[in-house]
Amino acid sequence: MAGIQESRRxxxxxxxxxxxxxxxxxxxxxxxxxxxLLPIVNVLALSFSSSxxxxxxxxxxxxVDFSLESYKYALTKPQFLRSFAxxxxxxxxxxAVNMACTVLAAYxxxxxxxxxxxxxxxxxxxxxxxxxxxxxxxxxTVVKQTGIMNTLWGVILPGAVPAYHVIILLNFFRQLxxxxxxxxxxxxxxxxxxxxxxxxxxSVPSLATLALFTAVGHWNSWFDGLVLMTSPDNYxxxxxxxxxxxxxxxxxxxxxxxxxxxxxxxxxxxxLRASQIFIAALPVLALYPYLQxxxxxxxxxxxxxx
Amino acid sequence: xxxxxxxxKRKHVRFRRQIPLHLMLAPCVALVLVYAYYPMIGVVIxxxxxxxxxxxFGSKWMGLENFRYLMNLxxxxxxxxxxxxxxxxxxxxxxxxxxxxxxxxxxIHHSGLKRAIQTLLYIPxxxxxxxxxxxxLDLLSPSTGLLAELWRLFGAEPIFFLANPRLFPYxxxxxxxxxxxxxxxxxxxxxxxxxxxxxxxxAIVDGANRMKQVWHITLPGMAPIIVLMMTLSLGNVLNAGxxxxxxxxxxxxxxxxxxxxxxxxxxxxxxxxxxxxxAAGLFKSLISFVFIAxxxxxxxxxxxxxxx
Amino acid sequence: xKKLLPIVLAAALxxxxxMPMLAEATDPMAKYAETVKLTTAKSIGDSLQSFIDKKPxxxxxxxxxxxYRNLFNIDVAYxxxxxxxxxxxxxxxxxxxxxxxxxxxxxxxxxxMLVEYGAAxxxxxxxxxxxxxxxxxxxxxxxxxxxxxxxxxxxLMALPSVGGNRDGSVFWWIRYDWLExxxxxxxxxxGEMLETLYAFTNNDPDGNGKDDTVGLGMVKEFITDTFGxxxxxxxxxxxxxxxxxxxxxxxxxxxxxxxxxxxETLAKLYADGxxxxxxxxxxxxxxxxxxxxGKIGMFSGGHAQAFWPLQDAKNANLDSxxxxxxxxxxxxxxxxxxxxxxxxxxxxxxxxxxDPEAVVKLYNYYYAKDPALSPDFDFHYHGRLDADPExxxxxxYNWAAIASWYPMQNLFIHRGVDSYFNxxxxxxxxNYWIMxxxxxxxxxxxxxxxxxxxxxxxxxxxxxxxxRIDYYDxxxxxxxxxxxxxxxxxxxxxxxxxxxxxxxxxxKIITGESxxxxxxxxxxxxxxxxxxxxxxxxxxxxx
Lengths: 306, 308, 543
Fold this sequence. Notes:
- The structure holds three protein chains of three kinds.
- Chain A is mainly α.
- Chain A has two domains: 27-67, no CATH class; 68-305, MetI-like fold (Orthogonal Bundle).
- Helices cover 70% and strands 0% of the residues of chain A.
- Chain B is mainly α.
- Chain B has helices at 3-37, 55-58, 65-72, 76-107, 111-122, 129-139, 146-153, 168-193, 197-205, 210-233, 242-248, 254-257, 260-270, 274-303, and strands at residues 48-49, 60-61.
- Chain B has a two-stranded antiparallel sheet.
- By secondary structure, chain C is an alpha/beta fold.
- Chain C folds into two domains: 4-164 and 344-399, 3-Layer(aba) Sandwich (D-Maltodextrin-Binding Protein, domain 2), CATH 3.40.190.10; 168-339 and 481-542, D-Maltodextrin-Binding Protein, domain 2, CATH 3.40.190.
- Chain C has helices spanning 4-16, 19-22, 46-54, 63-72, 87-96, 108-117, 124-130, 133-141, 145-149, 176-181, 190-202, 230-235, 257-271, 284-292, 310-316, 356-369, 379-382, 409-423, 432-445, 452-458, 465-474, 489-511, 518-542, and strands at 36-44, 74-83, 103-107, 151-152, 155-156, 159-162, 171-175, 214-216, 243-246, 249-252, 296-301, 322-325, 337-339, 343-349, 478-480.
- In chain C, β9 and β10 form a beta hairpin.
- The radius of gyration of chain C is 24 Å and the shape is globular.
- The two termini of chain C are 38 Å apart.
- In chain C, 53% of the residues are buried.
- The model of chain C is unreliable at 1-24 (pLDDT under 50).
- Classes of the chains: A mainly alpha, B mainly alpha, C alpha/beta.
- Chains in contact: A-B, A-C, B-C.
- At the A-B interface, α2, α5, α6, α7 and α9 of A face α1, α4, α5, α6 and α8 of B.
């Protein structure tokens, strides 16, 4: 940890810059940033507007007829809260399983073929699963056969080893200085010890990146929840939210019963949709600024040398 | 000791040292075998008239009939062309823009500002295309859209972007960048953190200006990750983005905007044949495999870099 | 006259009551000696879900399920449930994985798959044997259309969830307040309709001094009733998605000369800015938004639009007055709207289910207890009017494992509402369904605009959705689609191409990118790319 502290005091990044160029870069990037702000501002404005104004498309970037109704509705809706909790649990469990598998696979694969016999075969073995899959039906079947249908394990285990992440992490591992491992070998350290005590602390930025990707992946996926859960009570949040953005089927609308039509009118409320979408996006939006502190420059090398 | 014995002994030592590495891989290999390789039996559906009651082994064998059906549909050639055209542009832009973003962000000294902009760029990734599509429809409307207002300020006739077959693929690329570039930047930012700061200090002592530092230190430092991302993104050569296209396209731009995924989706709505969709998926996988393998061997041959 | 229908039906029922004695001795409602266990699946709507949140076991512990157990010794359990918006997708997976409950609801294309795979049980015999007299009565009232849709190769492969085919009627929804403001009369001919559309576009009907309204709104995939081309085209006798009789055979509506006329009209409207010039990129939610915000004067639709989006339109602007008016023709003849099948959902029985007749019993039981005309109707099975929906579980009809309706239920409701308000017929209140709607209408008339949808749907005039369908019914303005059977083999093969060809060609003609002559080329292409084969198959199927 001493290394980390030290590195923060080190000069980081490029120096010797002109002010004009600085201003230009800041202006350009800020403009890009503001453009990216549009959709969330629109969703937020919708969520604070009255239903009538939202249905008439009068809400753009500022609430019309300010109202908190939609949040009251969303935050007291048991299904929304339950799905939210399920998603949080899923992300926690998914992070543990995926990150463990990613590290356990990436570390050996970051060795050369001389250090790990069959490295190439292993690498292609994992890579192949990134490209080819058996599709929906056998996926459903294997989850059923292994007895994890309708559980969180069902949406986590089939994707437990994310080949894409393994490949990224092994590349980051390979960038760490060679001397590091060799020195430790001299000291008689085991592979597991080296991985945990040397490689992982030095890979905080890349691990943080992959953890973010993993968390976001679990948070956003919805289709597996629909297929593998047998009751809406067990749906992760995005599976539940999918209801709200399904496009109306104009072909079958006229054969609906009066009760179904009332239902349709009820769920087409845009302010309710907007507030739930916003609340659902909040955790992942907050995650990134939080993880940014692990992206300190010089953190890696600083600690190697310190 | 003869040299043969030495080699044998070394081999033995080497293997003993390797055991922990193989053990680490073992649980991952097991999981992948069960949940990825075992289900791959399912690809046989591509060659069958699949009947769920008869299963993978009992369904009627069709050979390449499903592929033939897909290939012989009158719209297939243009759909494949559109897919490749759109996805190549997306691959190129999807590599270039995040790299540029990462380098420029790295040039901003004010760390609060830098973080704030990073976070803003990251936001649209979390909005679904249905939401973004509604916003784009408003923004790009030639009569009432914001963009049209700007156009008119400069005395130009507004363009109907979403209904213009010539421009539609570019609209897809630009809006895709809008949504995903910020998210894509993260991995490059992570790779910049791995660069040794003393390199910059040395360069400053040598009087290198900013462009030179980017060119000689930052980019080379990012190179392994850039090569990696390039190779992996080649696998998307037939992925032009289903959700985006299905939200934004319309019959007037089918000629340039219809892609394999939307086409197969529409086939599925009418023709509930699992075989046809599986055949399309298998075709796509094979092509991405070939492209990634090509990228892999190019990186190996010309940069002496083993991507994975 | 209005009361005639129930009387006729009641007479038929009285007759039906003796039928079991005359026919064989099977009692369709007999209780099993040993418990029969059945599994099924359910589509859960938003309101159902909120009841489940209050009482988690309500799905299987409710008035219907308890009767299934107590009266028939049938124990029904759910293998899975899914939200209504995702039910279809979930069911597709279950079919693909061959992991199906004993009986389950599917749509027409899923039913066709099941039949093809041999996954659905043949119900011909059990239905003949176990359908109750009243169930049979209802099938007759449906003119057996729903049963026909469930029949493949002469075998009954599912029980139809009958909704009634008249509800497929298309008409115009129009801003009547704009009409009155511009001092125009309700359009009764094609020419008058065009004049109205032009006036709505050019004469500033909303009086805001801006040129910001259009006569006609449509969606980008416009070959539909709702927000589509159909109100205009069917008025001209063009039935784009239907099959029409011609010289003793049937032909596809899509290649008839009337379609050309409709496209020509729309091309002119588009060129003049009367048809929204940006419709080519708009989806249904965008069009709905413009209807609500008062940008659009007329659109094609059906009874469902009273609930969506027109309730929103009322909420957003209390002065707006949307009314349903008839489609109009250009030749002085009565225009006709095309009717399709009467069911869009079906209950299939798993071929491995050992007690398919139990499913027929459940089907009978729903008919016995809930539909509007049932002699045994009991509002306890339907829901309690006096219950507070916030705290109590209501809408009991939703809990039944199977539901099918009196095929003219919606029309029947409207007629009851109409006779109550216009003829002072108090007896209408005796029917639960009618009473429910009378209450809603009364609330609207008393000034509660949140009940506009009930008024716009079943309200006591020709201008409500069901009122317009009633008008069509009384004036003989229906034409039956000549082919409503399942997709033929070549439809499955060629329709992808043909539908895309149609949508692209029609869009280009309307926007003026292609001239109207392109339509002749379209006919030739259509025939060549599989249309002729399909026509042949359809004619063979009808023989």
